[in-house]
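Hi everyone,

Forwarding the result from last night's run.
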Amino acid sequence: MNQITLFIMGVLALFGGWLVLGQNLFLGSLFLIAAIVVAQSLKVANTWEKYVILRAGKLQGVKGPGIFVIVPVLDNVVAIIDERIQTTAFNAEQALTRDTVPVNVDAIIFWHVNDARKAALAITDYRQAIDRVAQTSLREMIGASMLAALLSDRREADQHLCEEIGRKSAEWGVTIRAVEIRDVAIPVALQDAMSRQAQAEREKQARIILGSAEAEIASKFVEAAKVYTDYPAALQLRAMNIIYETTKERGTTILIPSSMVDSMNPASLAALQTIRKPAATSPETPALSQANGAGNTPADGIPGLQPVLAEYAQTSQRAYVLASQDDWKGK
């Protein structure tokens, strides 16, 4: 009973009782009867409620929200319908997918009543009906879907469930707003198999990328080898640079084979160039040698190479001596 009805009924009952105590039985009885009638006929519906009223067994109307009056004895409120958005959780346990994989699926449905008359008169219990229809539709959807699609395309599955449940519940005056799948649980053994499969796919992709990188590196090495074959001086400069870089850190002792030291000798470079390219191969070589001075090696034919070779040789020698001295002092 709402507060307005209770207040009016209380006032009438108190006034009637006061009249009865004052020896005015007739008026007192009238007020007491009026209090009872008010309690039975005056109703107040909240803004989200609808009252479905039958008069002598027939639909009289749907009342609310606000204050309204019904006829006692003749009118009967058969249902109070809540039109707010409501949620219902449902699940499907051990349901088989299209590829015969048992899964447990939990979902939630958002719905509201848009027609109070249908919800009260077209079905006995619309709440229970929505729950049953949702479970049945979920099992049908699982049986028609592959496991991979069920795990990856959640939105499509949600949309399919929303349309299917909405189509079945439309004649009850219920509107389905959304359906969301919360969890899809698969057997532990299948989880391990899927994990191994995913790991194998990652390893396959990693090896493909590594192979592509190795092929690219090999092609670059081939290009570098061709350059070093045509220009041995470039190889000597690269070797000196490697030694210089390795001797930067203090306290480091490096053992260099004598053959490697001899290979960095400019005289050896000249000999290699003499063997590979005889002096008579190009008519420009004598002129180039004469331009650089008598007695120069073929390496001197490259402009500016001799100072660079000398500088790298001195730098490498100083770095090696300093590194050896620091290591000796450390001991």
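Residues 3-79 form one domain.

Cheers,
N.
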